[in-house]
Amino acid sequence: MSKVVIVTGASRGIGLAVARHLLTHSHNVVLVARSEAPLAALKAEFPQQVAFTTADASDYSAPPRIVDLAVATFGRLDGLVINHGMLAPMTRLADANIDDWKKLYDINLFSALAFAKAAIPQLRETKGRIVLTSSGASLKGYTSWGAYGSSKAAANSLIQHLAAEEPLITSVAIGPGRVDTDMQAEIRSTGGTVMDPKDYNGFVSAHEEGILNPPEKPGEVIAKLSVDGQSDVSGKYFK
Which residues form the Ketoreductase domain (predicted)? Predict the structure, then answer.
Protein backbone atom coordinates (compact mmCIF):
# COMPACT_ATOMS: atom_id res chain seq x y z
CA MET A 1 0.00 0.00 0.00
CA SER A 2 1.23 3.50 -0.81
CA LYS A 3 2.27 5.52 2.22
CA VAL A 4 2.32 9.29 2.85
CA VAL A 5 5.59 10.74 4.12
CA ILE A 6 6.74 14.28 4.94
CA VAL A 7 10.39 14.88 4.01
CA THR A 8 12.16 18.02 5.22
CA GLY A 9 15.32 19.35 3.62
CA ALA A 10 14.02 17.73 0.44
CA SER A 11 15.52 20.08 -2.16
CA ARG A 12 19.00 18.52 -2.28
CA GLY A 13 21.38 15.89 -0.95
CA ILE A 14 20.02 13.16 1.30
CA GLY A 15 16.54 14.67 1.51
CA LEU A 16 16.17 14.74 -2.26
CA ALA A 17 17.43 11.15 -2.45
CA VAL A 18 14.89 10.06 0.18
CA ALA A 19 12.08 11.78 -1.73
CA ARG A 20 13.07 10.25 -5.06
CA HIS A 21 13.28 6.76 -3.61
CA LEU A 22 9.82 7.08 -2.07
CA LEU A 23 8.31 8.50 -5.25
CA THR A 24 9.80 5.85 -7.53
CA HIS A 25 8.32 3.22 -5.22
CA SER A 26 4.83 4.70 -5.60
CA HIS A 27 4.57 6.49 -2.25
CA ASN A 28 3.15 9.99 -1.77
CA VAL A 29 5.45 12.67 -0.43
CA VAL A 30 5.06 16.12 1.07
CA LEU A 31 8.28 17.98 0.30
CA VAL A 32 9.59 20.75 2.55
CA ALA A 33 12.61 23.01 1.99
CA ARG A 34 13.56 26.66 1.71
CA SER A 35 14.14 26.49 -2.06
CA GLU A 36 11.04 26.13 -4.22
CA ALA A 37 12.49 25.25 -7.63
CA PRO A 38 13.72 21.70 -6.86
CA LEU A 39 10.42 20.89 -5.14
CA ALA A 40 8.40 22.19 -8.08
CA ALA A 41 10.53 20.07 -10.42
CA LEU A 42 9.64 16.91 -8.49
CA LYS A 43 5.99 17.94 -8.51
CA ALA A 44 6.14 18.26 -12.30
CA GLU A 45 7.78 14.83 -12.56
CA PHE A 46 5.37 13.09 -10.13
CA PRO A 47 2.26 15.30 -10.27
CA GLN A 48 -0.13 12.94 -8.48
CA GLN A 49 2.31 11.92 -5.73
CA VAL A 50 3.76 15.24 -4.59
CA ALA A 51 2.63 18.15 -2.48
CA PHE A 52 5.18 20.73 -1.43
CA THR A 53 5.70 23.91 0.49
CA THR A 54 8.61 26.17 1.27
CA ALA A 55 9.34 26.85 4.91
CA ASP A 56 12.06 28.13 7.19
CA ALA A 57 12.93 25.45 9.72
CA SER A 58 13.04 28.02 12.51
CA ASP A 59 9.37 28.91 11.90
CA TYR A 60 7.66 26.70 14.46
CA SER A 61 4.22 27.58 13.13
CA ALA A 62 5.04 25.75 9.88
CA PRO A 63 4.96 22.07 10.99
CA PRO A 64 1.23 21.98 11.89
CA ARG A 65 0.42 23.53 8.52
CA ILE A 66 2.60 20.96 6.75
CA VAL A 67 0.91 18.06 8.56
CA ASP A 68 -2.46 19.56 7.60
CA LEU A 69 -1.26 19.76 3.97
CA ALA A 70 -0.37 16.06 4.02
CA VAL A 71 -3.77 15.06 5.39
CA ALA A 72 -5.71 17.42 3.15
CA THR A 73 -3.88 16.22 0.03
CA PHE A 74 -3.49 12.50 0.68
CA GLY A 75 -5.87 11.74 3.53
CA ARG A 76 -3.34 10.49 6.08
CA LEU A 77 0.24 10.63 7.34
CA ASP A 78 2.42 7.53 7.71
CA GLY A 79 5.95 8.89 8.07
CA LEU A 80 8.06 11.92 8.89
CA VAL A 81 11.67 12.28 7.77
CA ILE A 82 13.42 15.06 9.69
CA ASN A 83 16.38 15.73 7.46
CA HIS A 84 17.05 19.48 7.58
CA GLY A 85 19.99 20.84 9.56
CA MET A 86 22.96 23.19 9.68
CA LEU A 87 26.64 22.86 10.58
CA ALA A 88 27.79 26.42 11.38
CA PRO A 89 29.09 27.82 13.65
CA MET A 90 32.36 25.91 13.55
CA THR A 91 34.31 27.45 16.43
CA ARG A 92 36.13 26.23 19.50
CA LEU A 93 34.16 26.32 22.70
CA ALA A 94 36.39 29.06 24.09
CA ASP A 95 35.29 31.25 21.17
CA ALA A 96 31.62 30.24 21.15
CA ASN A 97 28.98 32.84 20.36
CA ILE A 98 25.94 31.80 22.38
CA ASP A 99 23.47 33.44 19.99
CA ASP A 100 24.97 31.46 17.10
CA TRP A 101 24.59 28.25 19.10
CA LYS A 102 20.95 29.10 19.85
CA LYS A 103 20.28 29.60 16.13
CA LEU A 104 21.77 26.21 15.32
CA TYR A 105 19.77 24.53 18.09
CA ASP A 106 16.63 26.20 16.74
CA ILE A 107 17.22 24.40 13.44
CA ASN A 108 18.77 21.10 14.50
CA LEU A 109 16.80 20.36 17.67
CA PHE A 110 13.81 22.58 18.38
CA SER A 111 12.57 22.46 14.80
CA ALA A 112 12.83 18.66 14.92
CA LEU A 113 10.75 18.71 18.08
CA ALA A 114 8.18 21.00 16.45
CA PHE A 115 7.79 18.65 13.47
CA ALA A 116 7.56 15.57 15.68
CA LYS A 117 4.99 17.23 17.97
CA ALA A 118 2.84 18.26 15.02
CA ALA A 119 2.97 14.79 13.45
CA ILE A 120 2.36 12.68 16.57
CA PRO A 121 -1.47 12.67 16.50
CA GLN A 122 -1.59 11.49 12.88
CA LEU A 123 1.25 8.99 13.30
CA ARG A 124 -0.46 7.44 16.33
CA GLU A 125 -3.45 6.66 14.12
CA THR A 126 -1.36 5.03 11.38
CA LYS A 127 1.28 3.46 13.66
CA GLY A 128 3.74 5.49 11.62
CA ARG A 129 7.43 6.30 11.67
CA ILE A 130 9.72 9.21 12.48
CA VAL A 131 13.24 9.04 11.01
CA LEU A 132 15.79 11.70 11.93
CA THR A 133 19.02 12.25 10.03
CA SER A 134 21.68 12.42 12.73
CA SER A 135 25.49 12.29 12.55
CA GLY A 136 28.49 10.40 13.82
CA ALA A 137 29.44 13.71 15.43
CA SER A 138 26.68 13.01 17.95
CA LEU A 139 28.89 10.25 19.36
CA LYS A 140 32.40 11.64 18.84
CA GLY A 141 33.85 15.07 19.53
CA TYR A 142 35.61 17.02 16.80
CA THR A 143 37.48 20.26 17.36
CA SER A 144 35.15 23.19 16.57
CA TRP A 145 32.12 20.95 16.05
CA GLY A 146 30.67 21.47 19.54
CA ALA A 147 27.48 23.18 18.42
CA TYR A 148 26.63 20.70 15.66
CA GLY A 149 27.70 17.55 17.50
CA SER A 150 25.93 18.39 20.73
CA SER A 151 22.74 19.34 18.87
CA LYS A 152 22.73 15.99 17.11
CA ALA A 153 23.36 14.19 20.40
CA ALA A 154 20.33 16.02 21.80
CA ALA A 155 18.35 14.99 18.71
CA ASN A 156 19.30 11.34 19.33
CA SER A 157 17.96 11.73 22.85
CA LEU A 158 14.77 13.24 21.43
CA ILE A 159 14.30 10.06 19.39
CA GLN A 160 14.85 7.94 22.52
CA HIS A 161 12.19 9.88 24.39
CA LEU A 162 9.76 9.71 21.48
CA ALA A 163 10.14 5.93 21.51
CA ALA A 164 9.50 5.81 25.26
CA GLU A 165 6.46 8.09 25.17
CA GLU A 166 4.90 7.05 21.84
CA PRO A 167 4.98 3.25 21.59
CA LEU A 168 2.65 3.25 18.58
CA ILE A 169 5.21 5.26 16.58
CA THR A 170 8.57 3.83 15.47
CA SER A 171 11.20 6.55 15.96
CA VAL A 172 14.80 6.10 14.83
CA ALA A 173 17.94 8.20 14.23
CA ILE A 174 20.31 7.47 11.35
CA GLY A 175 23.95 8.51 11.03
CA PRO A 176 24.48 8.48 7.24
CA GLY A 177 28.28 8.56 7.35
CA ARG A 178 30.32 10.85 5.13
CA VAL A 179 28.05 11.72 2.23
CA ASP A 180 28.84 13.80 -0.85
CA THR A 181 26.62 16.76 0.03
CA ASP A 182 26.87 20.52 0.38
CA MET A 183 27.68 20.05 4.08
CA GLN A 184 30.84 18.17 3.17
CA ALA A 185 31.79 21.01 0.81
CA GLU A 186 31.21 23.45 3.68
CA ILE A 187 33.56 21.44 5.91
CA ARG A 188 36.28 21.48 3.27
CA SER A 189 35.91 25.21 2.59
CA THR A 190 35.71 26.49 6.17
CA GLY A 191 37.15 23.79 8.43
CA GLY A 192 40.82 24.21 7.62
CA THR A 193 41.43 27.10 10.00
CA VAL A 194 39.42 25.79 12.98
CA MET A 195 39.48 21.98 12.94
CA ASP A 196 42.21 19.65 14.14
CA PRO A 197 44.43 19.17 11.05
CA LYS A 198 44.19 15.38 11.17
CA ASP A 199 40.40 15.46 11.21
CA TYR A 200 40.20 18.13 8.54
CA ASN A 201 42.63 16.32 6.25
CA GLY A 202 40.55 13.18 6.63
CA PHE A 203 37.51 14.96 5.23
CA VAL A 204 39.53 16.45 2.37
CA SER A 205 41.16 13.15 1.44
CA ALA A 206 37.82 11.31 1.51
CA HIS A 207 36.58 13.70 -1.16
CA GLU A 208 39.77 13.57 -3.21
CA GLU A 209 39.80 9.77 -3.12
CA GLY A 210 36.15 9.56 -4.15
CA ILE A 211 35.09 7.51 -1.13
CA LEU A 212 32.25 9.74 0.07
CA ASN A 213 28.91 7.95 0.03
CA PRO A 214 26.48 9.10 -2.65
CA PRO A 215 23.28 10.58 -1.15
CA GLU A 216 21.27 7.76 -2.67
CA LYS A 217 22.86 5.19 -0.34
CA PRO A 218 21.62 6.61 3.00
CA GLY A 219 18.59 8.00 1.17
CA GLU A 220 17.38 4.49 0.38
CA VAL A 221 17.86 3.34 3.98
CA ILE A 222 16.01 6.33 5.41
CA ALA A 223 13.20 6.04 2.87
CA LYS A 224 12.65 2.36 3.64
CA LEU A 225 12.64 3.01 7.39
CA SER A 226 10.07 5.78 6.96
CA VAL A 227 7.53 3.34 5.52
CA ASP A 228 8.58 -0.09 6.80
CA GLY A 229 10.66 0.47 9.96
CA GLN A 230 9.80 -2.13 12.60
CA SER A 231 9.11 -1.38 16.25
CA ASP A 232 12.24 -3.19 17.45
CA VAL A 233 14.43 -0.37 16.08
CA SER A 234 12.49 2.35 17.86
CA GLY A 235 14.58 4.69 20.02
CA LYS A 236 17.86 3.59 18.48
CA TYR A 237 20.66 5.26 16.55
CA PHE A 238 22.12 3.43 13.57
CA LYS A 239 25.08 4.26 11.37
Answer: 3-182
